[in-house]
Amino acid sequence: MMFILFIFLFSVGKSQSLEEWNCTENKHFLFSNDQLNEQCTITIEYISLQHYKQICITHRLSIKTLPLPSFNSNYAMHTFKINSCQLLTLNQLPFLLPATVENLDLSYNLLSTFTLSFPLPSYLKYLRLDHNPNLIDINFSHSNGQQRLIGLSLRYNKNIRLSSLPPYLKQLDLTDCNLLQSPILSILRSLTKLTHLSLADNQLKQLPIVDKRTQLEYLNLSNNYLTYIDSGWLHKSLKILDLTFNRIESIEFFHEILTMNQTVKQNYRDLATNNPILEVSLHGNPLNCDCWLGSILNASSIKIVDLSLLQCKSHSIINMSDNDFLCSYSQHCASDCSCCDFEACDCHSVCPSECLCLHDTLWSHHIIQCQQRNLIDMHIHLPETIT
């Protein structure tokens, strides 16, 4: 009799799940920055032992029954999203989440506090708290949970207060978090495992010091007030760098990368394996037409992905020649030159006061412009590579 009653209750639960949840097969993960519907939406992603995926969706926060894949031992809940449901506290979660959940998305809600502890899954790896305008206090505690967390997104939360961050984070998104008035920047130095970081839309005028052990692969610094990037942020592991819409005039801060590029230029194998191409976005900056810009355009280790959008002196860069990208100087003596103090010195160059002298970053190409200056004589301290 009890067995029959169990079967009856299980069948009722399954029928209710079918009515309240819409489940379909899906080949794509849902953990992304996609804009969300304003309607309250709870989304669960299941992954089977054979790596098949089931996506189940409902629009009822009051739901109490789990979708059918939860009753299938072949499937495990992998991602749980509850968005635009006016969630005030974690106590409003409709049910306890199983330990198998690795991705948790609580974006577009009204949370004011968040604590990484029970009843949240103990094996959580990725956490999204984007667009919670009331969110202030976040406590990652000292539980094992913070040791496992490797992805954290806090986008568009302007009032958050943090005293610490999970130490093993690899991905951190702090887009539009009012970092100029926050102590969060000073915490970044402790995150030596970071590979992906976004500090976009924060009105930053300078960046904090970064630990030398940090090996970023992706860095988004767009929509700030930066004029210079410290070389510590330009690690050789960096693959994508977004500098769009800042106040950068000269990109001389790429000097070390460009020097390294010249060093390995003759060894294609070393260039391909140890120094991957860095993809840089630069449009929206008041760039100077100088030798550093010209050098980066010709560098084999750097690719300007928005080249067609770049301008300097109100001209499109793609329509300019190499001679338009030179730096001026008054005098120059090579670092390995031993005769700088002598008049007859091949490695000491002095620009005539009446002229404009230009050079490339390697000091191998010079242009001396003295036309229409009514010169009578010319001193001898001119570079051998003059044109």
From TrEMBL:
It is a single-pass membrane protein. The keyword Transport applies. Transmembrane segments: none annotated. One of its GO terms (biological process) is monoatomic ion transmembrane transport. It is found in: Cell membrane. Keywords: Cell membrane, Disulfide bond, Ion channel, Ion transport, Leucine-rich repeat, Membrane, Repeat, Signal, Transmembrane, Transmembrane helix, Transport. InterPro entries: KCNMA1_auxiliary, Leu-rich_rpt, Leu-rich_rpt_4, LRR_dom_sf. This is Uncharacterized protein. It comes from Rotaria socialis. The lineage of its organism: Eukaryota, Metazoa, Spiralia, Gnathifera, Rotifera.
